[in-house]
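Researcher:
Attend to token order:
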Amino acid sequence: MKKRFNPKTSQKIAFTILLLSALVTIIPVVVIIIVVIKNGISAISWEFLTSMPKNGMRAGGIFPAIVGTFYLTIGATIFSLPLGVLAAIYLSEYAKENRFTRILNLGIVNLAGVPSIVYGLFGLSLFVIYMKLGVSILSGCLTLAIMELPSIITATKTALNSVPKQFREVSLSLGATKWQTIRYAVLPYALPGIITGTVLSNARKTGETAPILFTVAAFYLPRLPSSVFDQTMALPYHLYVISTQIPGIEKNITYGTALVLIIFTLSLNLVGIIIRTRLRKQKKW
């Protein structure tokens, strides 16, 4: 007689496998953060954060890079978020299910996996050369916005589809129009998911080097930009430069810059998480 396999044993095995998978994922990240903090914390000071780079970036601070990264992140979000949300609303609420929409959805998903260097070359060709915007903040923001669009569209569609259909049916049965139903009965409940997608895409674009390499980033620019048509320094490219192109630079400056970039990204994520949590508390379902 065959011995039955105990369900509790299989559950313990599955739990152990999941736990090991989580540890394999988390431990390297924790180790990297510890190494960066250990080697870079000594470089963090008020002068380092608020002064201009000096002596070929071997001294001084990284203030222009911090400001430039902030401009690029906010600017790209301003361009991509409204367009991505409107596109997702159309695909989710208005477009009929046919071959065209299936191809469109497949294309959006595939665009999310395109290497960032391709977006950089596209931005260089379209915005810098063809539209003659030059190597500028505007070109960089538009390039990052295009790179961010697939993630925002996908996240917004998922958030919209998670809202129960009954909300739409009740609203329409009370005489509301299609847009009024979306505006007042769907979007408010999909906002947490939309914000989550935006936060994740922000985290990606904040650390990208390739797209801004061709469209906006300056090698050494110890001043702040005065308009959207100026170049600017940015933390990812600045970190790449001082790590590979500046001989004799102190190690703590390199790790300090990396630490500031990590804190910058985590701060954006924290703001998004706080907003998302508050919106979720307002849900009544």
About this structure: The chain has one domain: 46-281. The mean pLDDT is 88. Residues 46-281 form a domain with the MetI-like fold fold (CATH 1.10.3720.10).
